[in-house]
């Protein structure tokens, strides 16, 4: 799984748990709908921390809580070729 997919899956999971759409999340987080769409479609591979921070706050989470999930915590960069 690509690193960026971890964030897509995390956002989808949290939206599903809270019963909110990506469109509603955009309004709640003050992140442009197009920005969130690009993240969710995999066009944005490395979202800015400011964007992730806003998304976390929309979920009533700190950035640390948002980023604290098993798939990210156990992710290995060994197979990555980017530097």
Task: Outline the fold blueprint.
Blueprint: H1 3-18, H2 22-29, H3 33-40, H4 49-58, H5 63-67, H6 70-73
Helix pairs in contact: 2-4
Give structural attributes:
83 residues, mainly alpha, 434 Repressor (Amino-terminal Domain), 6 helices, globular
Give a verbal description of the structure:
It is built from 6 helices and no strands. With about 80 residues, the protein is an all-alpha fold. It has a single domain (about 5-70), classed as Orthogonal Bundle (434 Repressor (Amino-terminal Domain)), CATH 1.10.260.40. Helix 2 packs across helix 4 (about 50-60). The mean pLDDT is about 95.
The radius of gyration computed from the alpha-carbon positions, rounded to a whole number of angstroms, is: 13 Å
**Total strands:** 0
Tally of helical segments: 6
Instruction: Predict the CATH topology.
Output: 434 Repressor (Amino-terminal Domain)
Ranges where pLDDT stays below 50 over 5 or more residues in a row are none
CATH evolutionary superfamily: lambda repressor-like DNA-binding domains
Helix content: 55-70%
Mean pLDDT: 93
What series of H and E elements makes up the topology? Answer: HHHHHH
Second rung of CATH, namely the architecture: Orthogonal Bundle
Number of domains: 1
Under CATH at level 1, the class stands as Mainly Alpha
- Biggest pleated sheet: none
- Name the beta content range: under 5%
Given helix and strand content, the structural type is mainly alpha
End-to-end C-alpha gap: 18 Å
Give the overall shape. Answer: globular
């Amino acid at each position: 799984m690509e690193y960026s997919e971890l964030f897509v899956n995390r956002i989808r999971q949290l939206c599903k748990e809270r019963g909110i759409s990506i469109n509603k999340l955009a309004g709640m987080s003050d992140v442009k709908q197009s920005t969130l769409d690009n993240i969710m479609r995999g066009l944005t591979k490395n979202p800015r921390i400011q964007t992730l921070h806003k998304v976390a706050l929309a979920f009533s989470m700190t950035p640390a809580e948002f980023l604290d999930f098993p798939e990210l915590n156990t992710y290995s960069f060994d197979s990555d070729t980017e530097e």
